[in-house]
Design a protein that fits this description.
The protein has helices at residues 27-35, 40-79, 83-88, 104-136, 139-145, 147-162, 171-193. It is an all-alpha fold and 194 residues long. The longest helix is centred in the N-terminal third of the chain and has 40 residues, at 40-79. The chain starts with 26 loop residues before the first helix and ends with a helix. Residues 84-100 have low confidence and may be disordered.
Amino acid sequence: MGQNSSKPPPSSTQHVFTAESPVSFSPDLINALQASPETDSTRGKDLELHIQRRVQAELERLDAEHSKRLTELQEQISSAPDSTTDSIHPDAKTPDQSTSKGGVDHKAAADGDKLRDLSRQSVQKEIDMLKEKLKRRKIKEEVVKDKAVEKAKGDVVSCLRLNDRRPLDCWREVETFKEEVGRLEKDYLGKLME
């Protein structure tokens, strides 16, 4: 029982299939296949190179598309009328290429300053809007001011400290805390709906 190996000998792993009808290939085909320098590995390498070329071409196409879109957006931004600087300085004129000493570079710098001012102003507006929203919402302060929630929270904490090995004994305190928080949420939602 232990003398025979569990794997068959290597000569028996080769399978030979016999066809029901004779298969014959032309001598030209056989000669062409034998003379071909292409092997499985070279076919695999050729396929890999083909895939890499297609991926590279697709990446270049996407890059060109994105850069074109970026230039279009930059042109739209630069050609958009700047109402904020006109309202601040109505008499001030932007220097153009013919009157300024700086030429194209000076105009580009002025356009960049306009864009920077626009973005700075829009960010400041957004910050002000968020500050207003935060002033309207004083959830944290209301929670801290609510003595019933603070007491229920303190009861849960002290119970858990006393019963650190048996936290399930604090279920009453946890339920009381949940009820207080639920009451506070209802009050808050009531204020929001008003």
